[in-house]
Design brief:
This protein is of the alpha+beta class. Helix content is 30%, strand content 21%. It starts with a helix and ends in a 6-residue tail after the last strand.
C-alpha cells in the first residue's frame, strides 16, 4: 500500500512541476471510519470515487463507497453544492448507485454509460483501472452528482 501512495505522490508532484499542492490529501483509511478523519469543520468541495470495489453480493452492498450509509457520512464534510465524481466499469454498481444518490438527496448533474464516447468531465484523468477496462472493451460508466442545497447534515 505504501508503494501506491509513493507513486501517487510522485505523479501529483510531476503533474504540478514539483510546485506545492495544498488542496489535495492522500489518506489511507477504512472508508467506514471517514468521520474520524473529516468532520463538519472541514471544507470539501469534491470527492472522486474511481473504480471502487463493486461488492456484487447483496449481503456486501453496504460496503460500497456509494451506499447510502457512506453518502450520508460524506454530507458531514462535503460543502453545500459539493460534488461527487464517480467512475466504474460495473453496470450493476452504477445503476444501484444512481438510486443511492437519489435516495440521499444528490442531484444528477451529468451521466454517461460510455465515458470515452460521451465525455462529461472537463478533464478526464484516466486511472490504471480505467485504461485496463477500456482496453478490454468494457465501457466506463460515470456521473457527477451534486449535494442539493439544504441536504448537508
Amino acid at each position: 500500500m505504501k508503494l501506491c501512495f509513493g507513486l501517487s505522490k510522485r505523479n501529483i508532484e510531476n503533474a504540478f512541476n514539483n510546485e506545492k499542492v495544498d488542496n489535495l490529501f492522500l489518506i489511507r483509511a477504512n472508508a467506514e471510519r471517514i468521520l474520524d478523519i473529516f468532520g463538519s469543520q472541514d471544507k470539501i468541495d469534491r470527492i472522486y470515487i474511481n473504480f471502487c470495489n463493486p461488492w456484487p453480493k447483496a449481503k456486501h452492498n453496504k460496503r460500497r463507497l456509494t451506499h447510502p450509509r457512506q453518502l450520508e457520512n460524506y454530507k458531514h464534510f462535503l460543502n453545500l453544492n459539493g460534488e461527487i465524481y464517480f467512475k466504474t466499469d460495473s453496470e450493476e454498481l452504477f445503476n444501484d448507485s444512481l438510486e443511492y444518490f437519489s435516495q440521499c438527496g444528490f442531484e444528477k448533474i451529468k451521466l454517461t454509460y460510455d465515458l470515452h464516447n460521451e465525455p462529461i468531465f472537463d478533464e478526464n484523468i484516466e486511472t490504471e483501472h480505467e485504461k485496463m477496462f477500456s482496453k478490454e472493451g468494457i465501457k466506463i460508466k460515470a456521473g457527477i452528482f451534486k449535494l442539493s442545497g439544504g441536504q448537508k447534515v
